[in-house]
Amino acid sequence: MLSLWLLLLLNLSGLNMAHPGSHDEGAYFRSLASSRSVQEARQKLARCSNHIKRGELDARAAVRRAAILDSYRGISHSDSVSKSVRSSFSQAALSSSENPSCLLTPEATIGPFWVDGELIRSNVTDGEPGIPLILDGEFIDIHTCEPVEDVFWEIWNCNATGSYSGVQDFGHHHGDDDSNLDKMYLRGIQRTDKDGAAQFTTIFPGHYAGRATHIHVLAHVGATILPNQTVTGGHVAHIGQLFFDQDLIAAVESTAHYKTNNARITPNINDGIFNDVNSASSYDPILSYTRLGHSLEDGILAWATMGIDVSASYKAESAASLTDHGGVAHPYRWSAHVPGASNILMGVVGLGLVFWVARSFRQFCVRSA
């Protein structure tokens, strides 16, 4: 009995001592999904769907994606390339209307792996091995249903073995290795064109314990370009994540580089962020995709239309900054080893309760003897 009480109270005392990236985002998602502002935004986005279909934006998106396929397909022919549930080479399937526009609900926290000061560049692979991924995104203003030009779209994702660049990745592979702070693989920023569109060349992300396979998304609005090809100013109008079809994830994970990752795979339905938002918000966070060639190793083209509120402004705390002199960690923002004052207080209170219960139980046993 005593051991049961001790275990219970220790668990309670440890709730607030968890890694700050252990996804309090999920609770925020659930509360935000029912908020009035999100409900209104969702209604506006639903109206935008018909607007996109009627306008030329949908047709231009299909032409753009077909051109991407042609440029990367090489000797492959569209009729001979295998297709998936979300895959077809017809221009209709490459349009925006085939993949429902998705309002990507902002997170409570940006996560423990965002690095501010990343470079404007479209190819972010930096030689990382894995399945090539061409990511095509377009941003729609939910108030006007028109494309948003000059959004600085930022992405970051882990590599084939689940590691992020640019951070002191305490929970994964790097420990206190400072050299990882200077790495920039699978991170970058692109500026949207008149169609609200931009593209990245990255690799299909791997996985790490506790999270489904995903790509992080951030939208800077009103920013300006510095001479060193970074951005400054403006505000963050959107923080979100993009996910992948589970069958596609399974296929990728069976290929070279990915299958060396020994971390347990978390499926979409077991991911706190994916599951909560997908069920509560009725939006589609899964990228549509098609293969670039005959085999999966030839690469993947994936796309999404993202509706955003350009007037929204969210706080984005970084785990590190990329400077002209290399990466600089922010250990007191996102660190598994530095709990905040409230965390420490709750831990002390929890331990105090444990000792009090143990002492009371001992006294009870003495009196009963």
TrEMBL record:
InterPro entries: Intradiol_dOase_C, Intradiol_dOase_core. GO terms for molecular function: ferric iron binding; oxidoreductase activity, acting on single donors with incorporation of molecular oxygen, incorporation of two atoms of oxygen. Residues 119-212 form the Intradiol ring-cleavage dioxygenases domain. Keywords: Membrane, Signal, Transmembrane, Transmembrane helix. Residues 1-18 form the signal peptide. It holds the Pfam family Dioxygenase_C. It comes from the Eukaryota. The chain crosses the membrane at residues 340-358. This is Intradiol ring-cleavage dioxygenases domain-containing protein. It comes from Penicillium brasilianum.
